[in-house]
Amino acid sequence: MKIPHLKKKVELKSCHDVTWEDNYSWIHQQNILEVLKDKSKLNPEVKKYLDEENSYAEYHLKDTKTVQKKLFDEIKGRIKLDDESLPYKDHTYEYWTKTTATGNYSIKLRKKIDTGNVEEIWNGDEEKKKLSTEYFGIGDLEVSNNDKYLGYSLDIKGSEYYTIFIRDIKTKKIISKEIPETSGGITFSLDDKYIFYSKLDENHRARKIYRHEIGNLNDDDKLIFEEKSEAFTVSIGLSSDEKYYFINTSDHNTSEQYYFNVNEENPVPKLIIQREKGVLYSVSSWNDKFYNHTNKNAEDFKINISDSLEIQSWKTFIESKNEVLIGGCTFLKDWIIRSETSNALDKIFIKNISSGIEEELIVSDEKVCVPGISLTQRDRNTDNVYLGYSSPKTPSRVYLYNLSTKSKKLVKEQEIPSGHNSDDYIVERIEYKSHDGRLVPLTITRHKKTKIDGTSNLLLYGYGSYGSSMSPNFSSTRLSLIDRDIIWATAHIRGGMEKGMKWWKEGKLTNKKNTFKDYNFAAKYLIDHKYSSKGKIIGMGGSAGCLLMGAVVNQAPELFLGIIMAVPFVDSLTTNLDHSLPLTVGEFDEFGNAKDNKEHFDYIFSYAPYNNIKKMDYPHILITTSLSDNRVLFDEPAKFTAKLRDHKTDNNLLLLKTEMNAGHGGKSGRDGAIEEIAIDYAFALKISKKI
Length: 691
Prior knowledge:
Helix content is 19%, strand content 33%.
């Protein structure tokens, strides 16, 4: 089949006295945000190219159709399709969700406490059918405090422009005007007169908080708060003690918070602590005290306490620890629950308020696992919580746990209908030395029958941006590769927060290359210790994880058999220079500001995947993206693919697959998500010669 070709239109770009060619720049439309909302506005020439690439990918994956179907059935077979969540007690009702074998979306149910009359208040599949839309994204689904109203937000394009709807639960009628172009979050007032929400500006940034009167059909919602900085985005939420609304405004590096009383008829948000560059904080309130989770003078966070916000006198409540990330607090009447993270492992701590005694809650005897805790009810006058965990080999288990008596009862276990034996798998947690001697955690999961002699293929997953940590949780999907003797390894590289804030700082701005080096050193460790061999490793990442994939494949292509890239952030220099794009200005503290800072420009230019493509052999590469993605524009993978075709000197596969009715998260619905995983895994099996 003919290889797709994207026309070149010679264009020279320059910045800081540096000039470079960008011959595919023309595919970026100035009205790109309109295109995300209405694909009919897409340049026909660009659409033709994307369609050709889709046909080309389809052609080269046609021999995987059978295995795709097998993988789909296999992955779906590990999911209990008819399932129900654990109940959560509100004031007079308990709420839960269920899924069905025939549906793709959840159903929300409720019944009055201590009764048996179950009521269906939301059915995602029915709602999708009403709208006759291919994509169906649910932003928020909230019930009002009086249990009368259902607030929900929908995105039917994938572009993350959410429209909010307010429905009377009993009559199922919409009772307010539709509120378009929001960030999706809904907060009901305690008196059920209003909802609070954030509105997106012309650059798809949430910078305004509005109050909408329930039942109002007019466009006269009251502006409550406006953020002036283009780099900051806003949100609003109710405090734990339900006495205040807190407005949070932040970028990735700095935050600021405001509050107002729930009883204020005309809210005037009051500043808590003025923003200070590099300082993140979040205040919560409980039992007439205020708790501040902050990194001021505490790199890995601490928690301070004050009796008042009007006359603040902060004292240390939980001290900071070196390379131990201190999490925030969850409150019950007699207990404070919090978490810590170190070496990519989480711990849960429980503090008795009256005694002041704090102890760690040991959930499992597995060394590598992810503990979790959640509330059973809205009323905080209880000792009961849901306590659970999972591990790379153990499906989720949830217990009803009494904090006072320390008794626990298993109330839900993730069922694997097709069968699963945890003893068939081996999980290892090791630390390897990176280029500068820093010890990097690495989680390895393999079948016990898989040989460690260098003959095995291995999938190495990485992310390493925004302080996002990769938790070693259970994934039933990965078993489809692991059961076929492909080892799964996750590198907890710098740029995440697996070892605290310092771990993040050492992998961003002008330290970003540590992220790439950590990953390459993970690959080399796995090769040296016979988990795999050079040319048998498959790299995998998504979004900013593809800044990683793009950089390492340019730097060390010989290490890899293949690369799988989802919604890839690969034209990072171009995006960073365009301050009109939704995310750019808010990410200056993550990647730098190339336009206004020459040091940042030079550094980004030196590793940006698109700008560093070379004439050389590349491994097999599968790139997937979505037309309506506002976070990583489809331009980026399209340009990256076209330039790779110009430069690569091998005959390996290079496939670009664009989903024309989806956004950053790919296809909507359970089956859609499984289909995309099946394609990725089929590609991995194809290049590994396992089909």
